[in-house]
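Budget justification aside, the reviewers requested a transparent look at the raw inputs and outputs of the sequence design task funded under Objective 1. We therefore reproduce one unedited record. The lines immediately below are the C-alpha cells for a 146-residue chain.
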C-alpha cells in the first residue's frame, strides 16, 4: 500500500470523493450512525490515505496542536471493511503518527477513540485519560500518546 499526505487544497476531486465515500461507507452505513461528517474541519486538516489498486482503502485526517485538541490529533480513522484483515489500520496509524512528527514537529497526540478500539490504540502507545463518553451515540474514550 502506498500512502499519500496532502492538505485539503492539494487533494484532487477524485481523491476527495473517494475519501468522503469511504467515510460514509463505514461511519454512516456500516456503523449505522447518522451524524454530520462534513464538519468544515477537513479544510484545516492534513489528510493521510493509503491507496491499493488505485483506490483509497485507508484514511485519517490529522490536526496540528490547537486545531482540534491542545495536542496534535488524529481523527476519522477508517479502513474499508474488506481490507481490514491485512493490517492496514496499523499502517495508517503509523503513517499518521509519522506525519504528525514530520509536519508538526511534535510527539504528543490526543484522540477521541471508539471504546472497542482501546487495545488497538494502546498497541500504538496511546493511554486512556478520564472516563468514557458518548459521541454520536457511540461509546468513546479520550486517549493520549506522548
Amino acid at each position: 500500500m502506498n500512502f499519500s499526505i496532502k492538505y485539503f487544497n492539494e487533494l484532487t476531486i477524485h481523491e476527495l470523493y473517494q475519501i468522503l465515500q469511504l467515510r460514509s461507507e463505514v461511519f454512516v452505513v456500516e456503523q449505522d450512525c447518522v451524524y454530520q461528517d462534513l464538519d468544515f474541519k477537513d479544510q484545516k486538516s492534513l489528510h493521510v490515505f493509503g491507496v491499493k489498486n488505485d483506490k483509497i482503502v485507508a484514511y485519517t485526517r490529522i490536526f496540528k496542536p490547537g486545531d482540534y485538541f491542545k495536542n496534535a490529533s488524529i481523527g476519522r480513522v477508517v479502513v474499508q471493511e474488506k481490507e481490514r484483515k491485512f493490517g492496514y489500520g496499523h499502517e495508517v496509524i503509523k503513517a499518521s503518527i509519522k506525519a504528525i512528527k514530520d509536519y508538526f514537529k511534535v510527539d504528543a497526540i490526543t484522540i477521541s477513540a471508539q471504546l472497542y478500539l482501546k487495545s488497538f490504540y494502546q498497541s500504538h502507545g496511546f493511554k486512556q485519560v478520564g472516563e468514557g463518553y458518548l459521541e454520536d451515540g457511540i461509546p468513546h474514550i479520550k486517549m493520549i500518546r506522548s
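Residues 83 and 134 are 27 Å apart (CA to CA). Strands lie at 2-7, 46-52, 55-63, 72-79, 109-114, 127-135, 138-145. Computational costs for records of this kind are itemized in the attached budget.
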